[in-house]
Amino acid sequence: MGELAIILKVSRRQWRWVAGGILLGIAVFAANALLMAVSGWFIASMALAGVAKTSFNYFIPSAAIRGLAIARTVGRYGERLVTHSAALRVLSDLRVWLFLRLEPLSPAILDRYSSGELSGRLRGDVDAMENLYLRIIAPLFTGGLSILLSTAFVAIWCRSAAVALLFSLLLTGIFLPLMAKRIADEPGRRSAELTGELRSMVADGLQGGAELILLGAEERHAGQVSRASYELVSAQEELARGAAFTLAGGLFSAGTGVLAVLLCTAVAFSVQQIDGPQLVMLLLFSAAAFEGAAGLPTALQLLPTVKESARRIAEISSTPPPILEPAVSAPLPAGFDLVMRNVSFSYEGSKPALREFNLEIPSGGRVALVGPSGVGKSTVADLLLRFREYGGSITLGGHELRDYAGDDLRMLIAAARQNSHLFNATIRENIVLSRPDAGEDDIREVLHVAALDEWVASLPQGLETRVGEGGSSVSGGEARRISLARALLKDAPILVLDEPTEGLDCATEQLVVNRLQQRIKGKSLLLITHRPACLELVDSVINMG
Ligand code: ADP
Fold this sequence. Notes:
Layout: H1 2-10, H2 15-52, H3 59-102, H4 109-112, H5 115-155, H6 159-207, H7 209-214, H8 218-270, H9 276-292, H10 295-317, E1 338-346, E2 352-361, E3 366-370, H11 377-384, E4 391-396, E5 399-400, H12 406-412, E6 413-416, H13 427-432, H14 440-449, H15 453-458, H16 476-490, E7 494-498, H17 506-519, E8 524-528, E9 540-543
Parallel strand pairs: 3-8, 3-9, 6-7, 7-8
Antiparallel strand pairs: 1-2, 1-4, 4-5
Helix pairs in contact: 1-10, 2-3, 2-5, 2-9, 3-5, 5-6, 5-9, 5-10, 6-8, 6-10, 8-9, 14-16
Bound molecules: adenosine-5'-diphosphate.
Residues 111, 347, 350, 353, 373-379 line the site of adenosine-5'-diphosphate.
């Protein structure tokens, strides 16, 4: 239950809406059951008065019937409105909470989960939490309370009928569904797991579709999807069988329950404990009482699936943060001397990516890291940006990086990382992300340095052109230069550029290098590259190979 407690805690701000929905649910149930009770009593009393030719005040009961009917209809409308509003508010709180938890975990969280799996969890599992309130919590409370209220109401006239009703309400609403839940537990868990797996597989297959075709592996991938899909269908069939069993069993036990109430009230009638109209009233009330417990089977049946989704949400949200922020952040330094001493780092479960690494960049100095792929160049950049915790010492302006708040530190460093993400927005929006208040001249200047100006001018929509998901509508070289322009716009004293000219032809590369020379005067630069032209930008080169 721990995982559900986490979800409930996140949505506790919405308790008024949740409680309102539950209260309205009970009010609607009461109005409906009382409507049936009063109607039964009224019709039977009218009939008896007709037979006995006695007068009968039908104004009060008929007004009560009208009142209850209106209350039922209006109440049902209000209940739907409030419960759905509650569910949507709970979902919205949950989405924001999860996003705020995930954001600082990035990029380390992508080491653990594929992006397909993450987006599946963000979407599917969070959406499944709608059921937690709408189909589990609200029906459990409404159902439980309606069972108690119904039993108490019938007990006023006939104790034995109340016991019979309670027994069959418990059987229909709780025991049968619990049995069904036991049957559904395993397929429910499997179904949630397989749904996640399938979603991730399909997303992966679509994103890597070109590679699969190229490698002739699309059949194999399709086979895997088809196998998972087949297993999912069989888990869902098991679930459906469980649901059918609950439904049929519920109908049967409700029918026999009403029959038992009829027998008990008939006995009470024969010993003149109750009169005829009361018998009819109790019978119709009992039949209506089952409606209050109607949501219980679904609630108990959905519980395992929703619990599994909650577990998966709790699992990612409790991923430990990649770095620990200091309790008090050191003041930002005046100078920007950067010194790395005996720095080591290993990715989770991998051999060390960096071992006893040393580097010194004085304020305004420019250093290039070169070496074969995989020696840890990008890792050095990530450590500097405080995306991951390092071993050894890295100081900036004399203070250990660990002593600075990550966000403060990143204000001093502008970076164009190797796989800088482009958002599915316009070129302008992607660039000004680093400085939202940048003026038109600033944007124009960084476009010029990144040699993007002519290309942007040639686009019909210019800077307002959308780059597509992950920059899919622009070329690799253009994407890289957009992230270079973004980093330059930030105008920070330290610049980290990871292969900024990758994918450019020699002439454009030289253009970018020349313009960068002018633009970054006075700034510290850590450049990762294997292109000779770029080495013009730096004072010293460290070969990590
Ligand atoms: P370079 O930039 O020099 O190509 P990287 O810093 O990207 O090298 O990688 C250094 C080593 O760490 C490589 O062996 C690489 O496979 C590994 N590595 C990089 N990123 C990850 C990651 N997210 N999870 C696990 N291992 C990683």
